[in-house]
Every structure is written in structure tokens, then in C-alpha cells.
Amino acid sequence: METGQQARVRHGKLLLTAVQIISEADYYKILVISLVMGFYDFVVGIGIGVALACLINVIKISRESAVRAEYTGAIAHSTVRRHVVQRRFLHDVGSQIHVMKLAGYLFFGSIVDVEKRIQAIINEHAFQREPFRYLILDFKHVSGIDFSAAEGFEKIHRILSSRSVEMVLSGVSMSGKVGKALAMVGLFKNDDEEDTPAVKLFEDLNQALEACENGSLVAFAQRSQQLAHESGIKPTSIGMSPICCSSK
Questions:
Q1: Which of 28, 26, 32, 25 is nearest to 46 (CA)?
Q2: CA 247 → CA 102, 149, 183, 189, 244, distances in Å?
Q3: In 3-state terms, what secondary structure has residue 164?
Q4: Which residues contact 74 (CB under 8 A, 6 or more apart)?
Q5: Using the 8-state DSSP alphabet, how is residue 235 labeled?
Q6: What is the residue-wise DSSP string for 171-218?
Q7: Whether 98 contacts 137, CB under 8 Å
Q8: Could you report how far apart the first and last alpha carbons of the chain are, in Å?
Q9: Contact criterion met (CB below 8 Å) for 152 and 117
Q10: Whole-number Cα distances in Å, 61 to 109, 111, 112, 197
Q11: What's the rounded Cα separation, in Å, for the pair 118 and 107?
């Protein structure tokens, strides 16, 4: 039968061997659990182990960026067939559309990185250097979202509105888990008293890109007509109407 001294020696050897095969965080977790179980109480040790495991898991997930890709409309285009002049124009103004592809489960730890990324492109110096009109957040690979992260997107919406940037969400359904969580924090409510662009929702990234491209074409046409009216000259044409094109 194993004595108490022999058991402690065996546990000590196991702890020394574990250093070579597991991560540092897991090693210290096992060490704390073993000490609590050995010198205090077995059940308390299990409870502390569960708490430490949850804490370490949260820290690991928060270190992984929720932003998996980031690019502009100069790189990503919708599949809509357009006039060659329109395609050239949309490529030239592609920086007006900014796309962020998100992934994983969004919670209070991971939303901080998303906010920092957006703050970096919306701050005064960066925005003056590379202004944009649309920010598309693609949720196709997002598995879920908690309440604090949903509130984070409401905060992001206010920040974008201060720069007159439209927030566009793709891969989100109002009947899905993500859509319901965002609706709970009032992200889709339209307040007529506030001069803020409403959040736009699309089933996939292609539809979101198409809508933003159409918006750029319409804005150009309206600006051309305004300048033509003021100067009395014929407005510049960039081809057929953006609404008449088809993606099929």
C-alpha cells in the first residue's frame, strides 16, 4: 500500500514530467489544483480548477483576432454585370468601400479588437488620408454573439455615424441568433430625431457590395447633375443606370 510520502513523491514526479508536455498556463493550473487538493480540500480544488480553466480559455480566445480579413472595394467587387465605364469608375473609387470579415464567437473579449481596428481607420488622421463611405461587416463565419459584443456594435455604429459612414452588415438574418442579439440592443432602430445613417442588412457579402456600388454610382450621377446645373453644361455620363444591371 502506498504511503503518504510515496504519493507526494509520485505526484511531484508527475508535475515535473508535465512541464515538458503541456503549456505553461496549463502547468500552473495543474500545480494550483494539486496544491489545493493536497493541503486543503479535494472538492475546492476541483472548483478552482474549473474556474481557472474558464479564465484561461477566455484569455486564449480574446488573443485571437475576430477580424479574419480586411480589404477595400478596389479589391472586392460584386458579381453584377456592369458597363465598362462603371467598372472603371468603381475601381477608381473602390477605397470608398471598406470590408471587414469577422469570424468565431464574438464576446466582450474579442469585440475589443474589432473596435480597435475600426478606430484605427476612422480616427481623424487616418480618415483624412483615406476616407470611405461604407463599412461592410461580414458575419458569414460568426458562430454567435453575446450581449456585450452586440452593444459594442451599437457603439461602433455611433462612431461611424459621426463620420457619416454607413454601417452595412452581411451574412446576418433577423431571424438568426446574431440578428436577434443585435436587434435587442436597438442597432436596427431608426430614430428620426438623430441624423444617423440606418444600419443596412444583407443576406451575403455580394449583395452588400452591390448595394454599396450602386450607392457610389448614384452619388456620382447626382453630383454630376448638380454641377451641370450650376455651370450650365451637359452632365458627365458613366454608362447605364446602376439599378438595371443583373448578377445573373
A1: 32
A2: 25, 34, 30, 30, 10
A3: coil
A4: 91, 94, 95
A5: P
A6: S--TTSHHHHHHHHTTTT---TTS--PPPEEESSHHHHHHHHHHHHHH
A7: no
A8: 78
A9: no
A10: 8, 11, 12, 32
A11: 17
Radius of gyration of the chain (CA): 27
Cell of 53: 480553466
The domain spans of the chain are 4-63, 67-242
Residue with cell 495543474: 30
Which residue is listed with cell 500500500?
1
Question: Between residues 61 and 204, which one has the greater pLDDT?
Answer: 204
pTM: 0.71
Which residue type sits at 170? S
Output helix, strand, coil percentages for the chain, rounded to the nearest 5.
55, 15, 30
What are the tens digits of pLDDT across the range 95-106? Answer: 999 999 999 889
- Whether 20 has a pLDDT exceeding 70, the answer reads no
Q: Which CATH class is domain 67-242?
A: alpha beta
